[in-house]
């Protein structure tokens, strides 16, 4: 038996190509005679547009077209609401180009298409817009307060959605509890900042009526469906390709951004390929962001630490529009009880319009906020009850025999009940506690304090509902010339390594080398059923679809080979690209021969065709060459549709040293324990955790999108928006636990976001512990910049700290 | 993020460069390009003409005399950082350059370019100022030398005239027994400093401080000498009290008001702390008793 590939830490098959610079991103696609687009964007957060004069721009040499809302025909519309929900109040989405009004700085007003990007930018600067600026209220709580200036004049109170969910009987729980703990927490806005900004290129073939779009998107299939509908052409005439994509993290699963419809429209109208390559400042102004929430959370507990109930009410900043409905807030609200039993939950949120860049999911999608709220409250409760923080958590965790654990009444973002399917939460916290050697650390901490060094221990636990539906599919075919296996999926990759893990799954079923499995993602011509890459769903949903399809193909191979070798399928094994008779490895056929013989129309072009001829006896002479219901070739398509989300979980722990004078934080240790079910490739899982951690550290200590009171972005560049460098991200120790998911054949759960979720809560917990001798207040906001820590220490000093 | 139109001129001699400068009062010198090109790409600047001085051979020279390290305008920061003789003559440069941006930027960026750009938070101007260094300048009327204190006028503003070119920076050689240190706090490694402090001092055989120069970056509209701290240190025994007093005295030098990165109070605390810690390090290097 060959080595099993499932579970092996094999190198990613895409890396040599990408590392050598041989990747092909949208901007690398050669398009002869392409024109280039640039946008004029609003310099005001809110303004009425009195007039737009494009004459100077149109006259500028090299300009092919200037588009405003007045000359884009049916595209002058509000773009689709992607995730409708009954609680949405007057849901607003953006128009491709502003009509009459603008709602945030950066909103697209006009698009210039010219011979090159330089010319397009020069001409865009010549467009004369007469604005009447309007008053704005930018900050979230102020925007939600009475008297706030409205973002959309007909949406009262800036309230885009108002939603309450209840599980159990929270009123009864609060009536009988012995202790109450309240926290107010604040999480600031960040951005995904993918290394490749967004990009769209389009080419239209007037002769065939075929539109081809290259889009740095996470969802080419919905883009294709949408473009076909918008342009009123058949889906088969539209091909959308997501080529190599340099990171997405949710930002690229938003659709449609204005350029995604305007660029194809221009290509169709101008009869030349058109390209729009977003640059970094534009990514800060025009691509969606996430995270600002303010929670007021209260726990009701007994004195022994048992948490009976939680009430949380929070404001969610949705920016100027709400294209994703309540997805982010709903995920936050249904993750609020974390890994704890807490049987009684009342959670209410309001999604609030602010005149800022629109909000849609970014890696974590509401979970980092929920985790920060509940975990900071658990630390506070432990301290108030005089309990150990770990002991309190262990006491409340959903126990092994509680699974599946249903939170009756809470509906997750997929519209299905919140049901933690499996896990060993207590085992996880035991493992984390043992690994951290808490007693040893406390001794070290005490010794360090005597030398005026301040060490702190922090921890946070998280859960993550992963692998949301509706479905994904796969098509697998074995090629008759080489015997190589081609896998087409509807998914896209932004660098995660799907190609490798899908190949591992297929290799095990078909007995071929991983390198002989060629996976195609992100091309609607190759495969066009499915959704997109989001919600940590690739391994869960597509992985199982690939697995199920591979099982079908394996059966076809065995069936055909059994006819060729005249033995029962059960006596055959697949290995090394061959089908062999068990115990008689010399009696074999190659996969290429099997694929060849499975097609009744055989030519003798190839070696496998010639050698397959020896099995001619298996050909039929008394029936049609293809049996009724049979198909030529070895190939299959199958789908996987998850019954509901499968819940991954884990815990982070950190030991930090804080310099109370310089207010800097140094990580001495950072540990991630996680359970994503069965691990397909530990190296790729660890890569996901490390990348997630880097983005989590950004949110915990550095990143904050800043607006001034007029709604102008203040740090829309990498010099002022502090994405952490490699020097700021700690080395991480990773602990794996594997509790197979009972919900899918592979037993896998998603791992794309787990590295990010708990970081803010864990880091705040550690810093708070380190600065405890200064009598510092509780740290209930992120990012905890040096400036924030200085202010907190200053307040402690002023308050007469011990 | 594409620059507006500009003319590109490549000067092969200093005279050509000066002629090009004199011909148009809206030119910019292109050396390492590490600050200039982002400025153009953001369309924050729109010079008519860029004068590329990278092919002028004399500007790539490094000269070390008994009194000065003279660094030509095209010498890259990384060259200076790894130059052992420069490090012998004035070790502050290596210690400081480790904080300047990142390796790939120092590979291209020039020492003189950073001085001429004169960002108030940049490290190298504060070192030139603290060491009492100077720059050499050539214009249509010949060469002149400008002392650091005279050169740095304001954030991104120097005493250089639009028709002049900085040809070299001259950092004094530190005498044997001199104590020195540079340290800073930046939000991320390699970023511009929230505050950075450069210290040069000497101590006599009795442990008394005989001279002290302290300069800071990031705290005002230009690099700033911390004269209050210097006065306290000179003549002291560099004991804990004197050093603490020097740190406290430095606080008032902070001009920068509250901004989103740092409140004025936080900047003052960083500055005071860096003064104390860097004086301690410099004193140890000067051989002062601990």
Model description:
The complex is a heterodimer of chains A (802) and B (290). With 802 residues, chain A is α+β, with helices and mostly antiparallel strands. Chain A has 3 domains: 31-134 and 192-286, Aldehyde Oxidoreductase, domain 3 (Alpha-Beta Complex), CATH 3.90.1170; 293-468 and 643-798, 2-Layer Sandwich (Aldehyde Oxidoreductase, domain 4), CATH 3.30.365.10; 469-640, Aldehyde Oxidoreductase, domain 4, CATH 3.30.365.10. Helix content of chain A is 28%, strand content 25%. Chain A contains 21 helices and 29 strands. The mean pLDDT of chain A is 95. With 290 residues, chain B is an alpha+beta fold. Chain B folds into 3 domains: 7-52, Uridine Diphospho-n-acetylenolpyruvylglucosamine Reductase, domain 2; 59-172, Uridine Diphospho-n-acetylenolpyruvylglucosamine Reductase, domain 3; 179-285, CO dehydrogenase flavoprotein, C-terminal domain (Enolase-like, domain 1). Chain B has 12 helices and 14 strands. In chain B, α2 (36-41) links the parallel β2 and β3 (49-52). Chain B is globular. Chain A binds chain B through residues 117-118, 121-122, 279-282, 661-664, 702, 706, 714-715, 717, 719-720, 722, 724-725, 727-728, 785-787, 790-791, 794, and chain B through 1-5, 42, 102, 185, 187-192, 194, 260-263, 265-266, 269-270, 273-274.
């Amino acid at each position: 038996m060959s080595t099993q590939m499932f579970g092996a830490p094999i190198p990613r098959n895409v890396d040599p190509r990408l590392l050598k610079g041989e990747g092909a991103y949208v901007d690398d696609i050669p398009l002869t005679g392409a024109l280039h687009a640039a946008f004029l964007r609003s310099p005001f957060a809110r303004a009425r547009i009195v007039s737009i004069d494009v004459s100077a721009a149109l006259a500028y040499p090299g300009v092919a077209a200037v588009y405003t809302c007045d000359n884009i025909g049916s595209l002058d519309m509000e773009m689709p609401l992607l995730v409708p929900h009954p609680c949405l109040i007057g849901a607003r989405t953006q128009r491709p180009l502003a009509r009459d009004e603008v709602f945030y700085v950066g909103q697209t007003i006009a698009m210039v298409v010219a011979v090159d990007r330089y010319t397009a930018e020069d001409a865009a600067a010549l467009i004369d817009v007469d604005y009447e600026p309007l008053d704005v209220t930018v900050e979230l709580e102020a925007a939600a307060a009475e008297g706030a200036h409205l973002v959309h004049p007909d949406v009262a109170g800036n309230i885009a959605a108002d939603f309450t969910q209840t599980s159990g009987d929270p009123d009864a729980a609060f009536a009988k509890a012995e202790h109450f703990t309240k926290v107010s927490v604040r999480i600031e806005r960040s951005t995904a900042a993918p290394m490749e900004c967004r990009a769209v290129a389009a080419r239209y073939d007037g002769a065939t009526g075929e539109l081809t779009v290259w889009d740095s998107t996470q969802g080419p299939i919905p883009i294709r469906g949408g473009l076909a509908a918008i342009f009123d052409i058949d889906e088969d005439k539209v091909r959308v390709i997501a080529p190599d994509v340099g990171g997405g993290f949710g930002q690229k699963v938003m659709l449609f951004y204005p350029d995604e419809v305007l660029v194809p429209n221009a290509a169709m109208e101008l009869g030349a390929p058109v390209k729009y390559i977003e640059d970094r400042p534009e990514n800060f102004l025009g691509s969606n962001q996430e995270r600002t929430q303010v929670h007021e959370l209260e726990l009701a507990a007994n004195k022994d630490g048992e948490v009976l109930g939680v009430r949380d009410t929070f404001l969610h900043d949705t920016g100027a529009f709400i294209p994703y409905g309540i997805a982010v807030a709903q995920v936050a609200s249904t993750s609020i009880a974390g890994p704890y039993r807490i049987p009684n939950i009342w959670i209410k949120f309001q999604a609030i319009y602010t005149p800022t860049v629109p909000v849609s999911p970014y890696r974590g999608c509401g979970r980092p906020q929920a985790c920060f709220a509940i975990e900071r409250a658990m630390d506070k409760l432990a301290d108030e009850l005089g309990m150990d923080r770990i002991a309190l958590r262990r006491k409340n965790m959903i126990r092994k025999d509680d699974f599946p654990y249903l939170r009756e009444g809470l509906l997750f973002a997929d519209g299905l009940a919140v049901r933690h399917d499996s896990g060993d939460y207590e085992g996880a916290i035991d493992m984390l506690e043992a690994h951290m050697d808490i007693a040893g650390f406390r001794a070290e901490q005490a010794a360090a304090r005597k030398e005026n060094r301040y060490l702190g221990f922090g921890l946070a636990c998280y859960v993550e509902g992963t692998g949301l539906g509706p479905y994904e599919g796969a098509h697998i075919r074995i090629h008759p010339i080489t015997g190589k296996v081609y896998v087409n999926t509807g998914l896209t990759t932004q660098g995660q390594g799907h190609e490798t893990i899908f190949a591992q799954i297929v290799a095990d079923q078909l007995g071929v080398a991983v390198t002989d499995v060629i996976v195609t993602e992100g091309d609607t011509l190759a495969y066009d059923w499915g959704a997109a890459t989001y919600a940590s769903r690739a391994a869960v949903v597509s992985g199982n679809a690939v697995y199920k399809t591979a099982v079908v193909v394996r059966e076809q191979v065995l069936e055909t080979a059994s006819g060729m070798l005249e033995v029962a399928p059960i006596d055959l094994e697949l290995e090394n690209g061959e089908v062999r008779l068990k115990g008689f490895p010399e009696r074999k056929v190659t996969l290429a021969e099997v694929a060849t013989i499975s097609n009744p129309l055989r030519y003798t072009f190839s070696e496998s065709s010639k050698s397959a001829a020896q099995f001619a006896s298996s050909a039929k002479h008394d029936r049609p060459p293809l049996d009724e219901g049979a198909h030529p070739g070895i190939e299959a398509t199958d789908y996987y549709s998850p019954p509901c989300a499968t819940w991954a979980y884990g815990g982070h722990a950190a030991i930090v040293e804080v310099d109370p004078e310089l207010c800097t934080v140094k990580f001495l240790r950072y540990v991630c324990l996680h359970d994503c079910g069965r691990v397909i490739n530990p190296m790729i899982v660890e890569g996901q955790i490390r990348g997630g951690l880097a983005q989590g550290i950004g949110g915990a200590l550095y990143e904050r999108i800043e607006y001034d009171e007029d709604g102008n972005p203040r740090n829309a560049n990498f010099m002022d928006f502090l994405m952490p460098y490699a020097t700021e991200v700690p080395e991480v120790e990773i602990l794996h636990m594997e509790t197979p998911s009972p919900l899918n054949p592979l037993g896998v759960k998603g791992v794309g976001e787990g590295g990010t979720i708990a970081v803010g809560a864990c880091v705040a917990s550690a810093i708070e512990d380190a600065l405890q001798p200064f009598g510092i207040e509780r740290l209930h906001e992120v990012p905890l910049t040096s400036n924030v820590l200085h202010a907190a220490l200053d307040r402690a000093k002023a308050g007469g700290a011990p | 993020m594409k620059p507006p139109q500009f003319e590109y001129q490549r000067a092969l001699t200093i005279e050509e460069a000066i002629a090009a400068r004199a011909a148009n009062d809206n030119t910019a010198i292109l050396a390492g390009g590490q600050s200039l090109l982002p400025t153009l790409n953001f369309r924050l600047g729109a010079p008519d003409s860029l004068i590329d001085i990278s092919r002028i051979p004399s500007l790539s020279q490094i000269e070390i005399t008994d009194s000065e390290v003279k660094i030509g305008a095209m010498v890259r920061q990384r060259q200076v950082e790894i130059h052992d003789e420069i490090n012998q003559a004035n070790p502050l440069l290596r210690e400081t350059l480790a904080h300047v941006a990142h390796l790939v930027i120092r590979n291209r960026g020039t020492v003189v370019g950073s001085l001429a750009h004169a960002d108030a938070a940049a490290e190298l101007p504060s070192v030139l100022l603290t060491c009492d260094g100077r720059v050499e300048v050539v214009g249509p009327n010949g060469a002149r030398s400008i002392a650091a204190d005279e050169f740095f006028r304001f954030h991104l503003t120097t005493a250089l005239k639009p028709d002049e070119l900085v040809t070299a920076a001259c950092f004094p050689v530190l005498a044997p027994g001199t104590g020195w240190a540079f340290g800073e706090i930046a939000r991320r490694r390699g970023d511009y400093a929230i505050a950075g402090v450069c210290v040069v001092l000497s101590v006599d055989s009795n442990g008394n401080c005989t001279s002290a120069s302290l300069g800071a970056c990031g705290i005002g509209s230009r690099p700033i000498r911390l004269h209050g701290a210097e006065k306290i240190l000179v003549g002291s025994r560099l004991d804990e009290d004197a050093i603490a007093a020097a740190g406290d005295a430095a606080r008032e030098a902070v001009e920068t008001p509250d901004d989103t990165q740092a409140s004025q109070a936080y900047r003052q605390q960083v500055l005071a702390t860096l003064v104390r810690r860097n004086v301690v390090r410099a004193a140890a290097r000067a051989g002062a008793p601990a």
